[in-house]
RNA sequence: GCGGGAAUGGUGAAAUGGUAGACACGAAGGACUUAAAAUCCUUUGACCCGGAAGGGUUGUGCGGGUUCGAGUCCCGCUUCCCGUACCA
């Protein structure tokens, strides 16, 4: 059945429009009449088919156990006030192509989109203007939706989520509550209910307990049982997965909030670039470190790039070593240190504590107290940034000594800020001969240096490598001399465990995530305080909605903005937590919510989760490697432990798209004049480069009139031209308003159409690569689509003729290339393949219906609007998104080969196969090449050599 | 420092170890046009020979190696980009 009501109507509409255009063109410009062929009118086509998709809910997806699922996810955007620029859709286009391809292959594809709506910019805007962040955010989302809708994505908008929507963040809060009510059992390797821990403590105390903990506690059952409720609650914080703890945090005074490690880079905040200092604060934290090993192990089975996996491995930073006790001389305490170089213990000449270490107070002698206090004060004053820039060696002697447990020698204990409080035990044994930091410190304070490795010259610098033969390492009970470093490490570890002076230990660099933010625009904690102790609210209060406040600033006495909320109390009158959750809270499980976005009984129903399981393909920027992608994996693993989700890892395959940078244009003003000189001539003058709006530049040629109108001060600008043109210079910079290099996708869609934008973005280069946006090449892609259009316009679509051999070759070659390219995410070469195919078909004057049908199916993921148009013109019903993906047949791709007998070494004869039509010269050339190749056969005679002139394709012995 | 990646025409870039530069932009020339736009055709890595058809040399950051054959694989450098950084 071939009904085509839409097609017919569409044709009429198009005809009318075309005639109208002709008329206006006639009357305005007296141009010659247009032919019967209709121009490719992207505006009309795209508008019509986008409406068709909406009206028919073509992209709506439902769980369907009869079909295999495929889940394609984009990292959802933060809706910023600047709107989308042309770089944002890059990854979305790639994932959209993949989604459509998979759908055409028969998969049930989940391809959702939403908004990461909590964020600092909206809040800062609110502080400045008083406008509620919700309004700002909603406006920005509206703008994003408009922009996205024009590009023709196959998102199922019915599943949209917004992290600031109470229906959504109910489940963010819910997850937090589950974490509060859980502890991590290291033996079972999973999270368990806190009630089970309480039961264990009441029966055994901490004896035999293997739990991820803030610090090591030793409690008997009696001690635990005799605690008050308040004491018990405070003690449990040591094990909860969401817990409160006094930790060193990154405090940003300008932002008035703490930041997570991944939100700080080079000592300044990632957002805003403000200095960050270290501060001890009581904060909500997530015990991510409990999952360090699983996060590490899980990477092996993921299809992520090696670089991204490596980044995560480094961030997790597993290191195997030993914890050792060094007794303090004259005191009843021991210093605990962590080292990966247990073998170097005979070279320890001093010890160093972090300034924040709890040992400091106990070890400072009265004589040194003044000096130590002064040093601590100095360290405290320095920001993290200053600490990093100013790498001068500094430190102070505590006055105390420790005893090296192996040599028995007394060694001084120092304090220095090169030792970090947050890693290991906050104390180190210093081996200046084999650690560059200890070396610098020893040199500066003139402390002894004992070399331990044969042949290592430590007169100028330390020898840090973990290799060589040990020396100077013999004590009364342990002799390491003559051993290789690795052997020595193993032997020492064994020895200290036997002697009870230490234990083998694995340390991770990964810290627990700080989960409090002293801000307004985030998820409130479902937590209240009774007698200064945190209690969870009842689950029935969820979602605990964000209250209104009059101002978004901190309160005058330094409390977070929620301190201004009226009645921010439980019905019983207990105060509710004033902090809100950080940005990563809402983005950690959004991929699960898409599976079942309207469920108000569960984050995701077991049925929906069992069907969609995990994300098959995740596309997004690599900047989330150490933030979102760690937190999300942690969050997922926790929910996995709870039995809420069925997959341990959330993102099976991950592709990082590169950033699109801006291409800034420059004009060159001659100093102290209003005269501008063209790029080629600028070296003859003393010039100042000035950024100019990219919209005033076409192909590096400046629109001079536009430039004069752009700014009043340029109204009477003069120009020194070359070849009658003003050529601008350019530089690659971040795309931003202040650089005048922002290209808006709306403008491109308006001028060339969404299909052109989509194909051009893919054509720019490999998807993973960062590259500058350059509108210059877009005409080529647009030209290609017009050629394709003309191919259809010329064709006789009513004919059922079989394609010619040449036509079949073109189209099957294309199908093979495009299929392979999509699988490999190599879209730029696919676009090229389309161009070649269309050119070849143009040369063949092809208008074959079956050929065009196949092309339509192949191009549908790339240019869905034009494909939909073709699909209906071919008389099909429904949407091209469900058009079956064409299989290619290799038989059409095989060249016709002709055999030529050839003599070799004067006697041997073998056969060369060449493509049909090869001339004598080609045969001779091939024979020559084959002779060389035959040598490699080690005297064997080739039976057959298949040659494309100059290129040996295959040798059969 | 450490980790990851990259280097190919004027530009963006292609090349399972097999004719390097596909495809596109730009540029130059031509056709159509009163003209322009649009469209189409030709040329386009560099150098050299030739009146021309055509032919030759060279060429994928640098230096070696493996191979009949290397942009591609191995070893050693140089430069650039990204990530991370006192993690003991």
Give a description of the structure.
The chain is α+β, with helices and mostly antiparallel strands and 957 residues long. 35% of the residues lie in helices and 18% in strands. Strands 22, 23, 24, 27, 28 and 29 form a six-stranded mixed sheet that branches. The chain has a four-stranded parallel sheet with strand order 2-1-20-21, with helices on one face. A hairpin with a 2-residue loop joins strand 7 and strand 8. The structure holds one RNA strand of 88 nucleotides.
Oligomer: single chain
Mean pLDDT across all amino acids: 86
Shape: globular
Uncertain residue segments: 1-37
Count of individual helical segments: 29
Distance between the termini: 56 Å
Q: Profile the largest sheet.
A: 6 strands, mixed
Output the structural class.
alpha+beta
Q: How much helical structure, as a percent, in the residues?
A: 25-40%
Radius of gyration: 35 Å
Please tag this protein with its features.
alpha+beta, RNA-binding, 33 strands, disordered N terminus, 957 residues, single chain
In short, what is this structure?
The strands form 10 sheets. Strands 22, 23, 24, 27, 28 and 29 form a 6-stranded mixed beta sheet that branches. The chain is of the alpha+beta class.
How would you summarize the topology of this molecule?
Blueprint: H1 5-29, H2 42-56, E1 69-74, H3 89-104, E2 108-110, H4 120-129, H5 133-149, H6 166-180, E3 182-185, E4 190-193, H7 194-204, H8 221-225, H9 229-236, E5 242-252, E6 257-259, E7 264-265, E8 268-269, E9 277-286, H10 292-298, H11 306-316, E10 318-327, E11 334-339, E12 350-353, H12 359-363, H13 369-381, H14 384-389, E13 396-403, E14 410-415, E15 427-430, H15 436-445, H16 485-499, E16 502-508, E17 513-514, E18 527-530, E19 533-536, H17 583-587, H18 590-593, H19 606-612, E20 615-620, H20 628-642, E21 651-656, E22 660-670, E23 675-677, E24 687-692, E25 697-698, E26 701-702, H21 704-710, E27 718-720, E28 729-733, H22 745-752, H23 754-763, E29 771-772, H24 778-794, H25 805-823, H26 827-843, H27 849-859, H28 864-873, E30 897-904, E31 908-915, H29 920-936, E32 944-948, E33 951-956
Parallel strand pairs: 1-2, 1-20, 12-14, 20-21, 22-29, 23-27, 31-32
Antiparallel strand pairs: 3-4, 5-6, 5-9, 7-8, 9-17, 10-11, 10-16, 12-15, 13-14, 18-19, 22-23, 22-24, 22-28, 25-26, 30-31, 32-33
Helix pairs in contact: 2-28, 4-5, 22-23, 23-24, 23-26, 24-26, 25-26, 25-27, 27-28
The chain binds one RNA strand of 88 nucleotides through α11, β11, β15, α15 and β29.
């Amino acid at each position: 059945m071939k009904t085509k009501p839409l097609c017919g109507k569409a044709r009429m509409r198009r005809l009318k429009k075309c005639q109208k255009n002709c008329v206006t063109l006639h009357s305005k410009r007296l141009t010659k009449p247009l032919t019967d062929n209709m121009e490719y009118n992207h505006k009309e086509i795209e508008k019509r088919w986008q409406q068709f998709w909406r009206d028919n809910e073509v992209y709506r997806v439902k769980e369907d156990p009869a079909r295999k699922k495929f889940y394609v996810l984009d990292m959802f955007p933060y809706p910023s006030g600047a709107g989308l620029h042309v770089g944002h859709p890059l990854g979305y286009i790639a994932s959209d192509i993949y989604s459509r391809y998979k759908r055409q292959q028969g998969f049930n594809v989940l391809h959702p989109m939403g908004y990461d709506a909590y964020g600092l910019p909206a809040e800062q805007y609110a502080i400045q203007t008083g406008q509620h962040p919700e309004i700002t955010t909603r406006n920005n989302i509206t703008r994003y939706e408009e922009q996205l809708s024009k590009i023709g994505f196959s998102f199922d908008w019915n599943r949209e989520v917004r992290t600031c929507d109470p229906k959504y963040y109910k489940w963010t809060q819910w997850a937090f509550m589950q974490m509060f009510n859980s502890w991590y059992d290291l033996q079972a390797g999973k999270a368990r209910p806190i009630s089970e821990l309480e039961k264990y403590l009441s029966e055994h105390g901490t004896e035999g307990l293997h739990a991820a903990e803030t610090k090591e506690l030793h409690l008997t059952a009696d001690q635990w049982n005799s605690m008050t409720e308040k004491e018990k609650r405070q003690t449990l914080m040591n094990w909860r997965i969401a817990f409160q703890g006094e930790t060193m945090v990154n405090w940003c005074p300008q932002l008035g909030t703490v930041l997570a490690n991944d939100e700080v880079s080079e000592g300044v905040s990632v957002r805003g670039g403000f200095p960050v200092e270290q501060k001890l604060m009581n904060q909500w934290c997530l015990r991510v470190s409990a999952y360090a090993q699983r996060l590490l192990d899980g990477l092996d089975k993921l299809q992520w790039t090696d670089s991204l996996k490596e980044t995560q491995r480094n961030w997790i930073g597993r290191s195997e070593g030993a914890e050792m006790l060094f007794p303090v001389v004259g005191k009843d305490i021991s210093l605990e240190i962590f080292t990966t170089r247990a073998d170097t213990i005979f070279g320890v000449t001093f010890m160093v504590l972090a300034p924040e270490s709890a040992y400091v107070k106990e070890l400072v002698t009265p004589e040194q107290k003044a000096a130590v206090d002064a040093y601590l004060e100095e360290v405290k004053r320095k920001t993290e940034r200053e600490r990093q820039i100013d790498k001068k060696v500094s430190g102070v002697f505590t006055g105390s000594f420790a005893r090296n447990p192996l040599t028995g020698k007394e060694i001084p204990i120092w304090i220095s800020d090169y030792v970090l409080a947050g890693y290991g035990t906050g104390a180190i044994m210093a081996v200046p001969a084999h650690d560059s930091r200890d070396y610098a410190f020893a040199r500066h304070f003139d402390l002894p240096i004992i070399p331990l490795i044969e042949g290592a010259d430590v007169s100028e610098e330390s020898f840090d490598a973990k290799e060589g033969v040990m020396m100077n390492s013999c004590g009364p009970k342990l002799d390491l001399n003559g051993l290789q470093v690795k052997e020595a490490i193993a032997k020492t570890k064994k020895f200290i465990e036997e002697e009870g002076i230490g234990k083998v230990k694995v340390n991770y660099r990964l810290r627990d995530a700080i989960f409090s933010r002293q801000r307004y625009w985030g998820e409130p904690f479902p937590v209240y305080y009774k007698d200064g102790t945190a209690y969870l609210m009842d689950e029935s209060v969820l979602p605990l909605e964000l209250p209104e406040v009059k101002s978004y600033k901190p309160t005058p006495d330094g409390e977070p903005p929620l301190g201004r909320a009226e009645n921010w109390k439980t019905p019983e009158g207990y105060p509710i937590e004033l902090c809100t959750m950080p940005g990563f809270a809402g983005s950690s499980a959004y991929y699960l919510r898409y599976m079942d976005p309207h469920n108000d009984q569960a984050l995701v129903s077991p049925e929906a989760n069992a069907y969609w399981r995990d994300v098959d393909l995740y596309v997004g920027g690599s900047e989330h490697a150490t933030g979102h992608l760690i937190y999300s994996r942690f969050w997922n693993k926790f929910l996995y432990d709870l039995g809420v989700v069925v997959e341990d890892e959330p993102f099976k395959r991950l592709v990082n798209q590169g950033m699109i940078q801006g291409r800034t244009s420059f004009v060159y003003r001659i100093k102290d004049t209003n005269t501008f000189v063209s790029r080629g001539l600028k070296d003859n003058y003393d010039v100042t480069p000035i950024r100019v709006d990219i919209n005033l530049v076409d192909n590096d040629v400046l629109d001079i009139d536009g430039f004069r109108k752009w700014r009043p001060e340029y109204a009477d600008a003069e120009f020194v031209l070359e070849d009658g043109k003003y050529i601008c210079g350019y530089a690659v910079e971040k795309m931003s308003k202040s650089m005048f290099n922002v290209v808006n996708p709306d403008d491109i869609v308006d001028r060339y159409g969404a299909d052109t934008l989509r194909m051009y973005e893919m054509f720019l280069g490999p998807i993973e690569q960062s590259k500058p946006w350059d509108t210059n090449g877009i005409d080529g892609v647009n030209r290609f689509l017009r050629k394709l259009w003309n191919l259809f316009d010329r064709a006789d679509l009513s004919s059922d003729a079989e394609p010619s051999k040449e036509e079949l070759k073109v189209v099957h070659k294309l199908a093979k290339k495009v299929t392979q390219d999509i699988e490999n995410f190599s879209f730029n070469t696919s676009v090229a393949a389309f161009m070649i195919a269309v050119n070849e078909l143009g040369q063949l004057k092809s208008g074959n219906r079956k050929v065009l049908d196949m092309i339509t199916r192949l191009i549908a993921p790339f240019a869905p609007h034009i494909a939909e148009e073709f699909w209906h013109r071919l008389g099909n019903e429904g949407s091209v998104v469900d058009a079956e993906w064409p299989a290619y047949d290799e038989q059409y791709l095989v060249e016709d080969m002709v055999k030529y007998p050839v003599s070799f070494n004067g006697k041997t004869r073998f056969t060369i196969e060449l493509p049909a039509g090869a001339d004598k010269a080609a045969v001779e050339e091939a024979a020559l090449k084959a002779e060389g190749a035959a040598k490699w056969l080690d005297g064997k005679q080739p039976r057959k050599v298949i040659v494309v002139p100059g290129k040996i394709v295959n040798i059969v012995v």
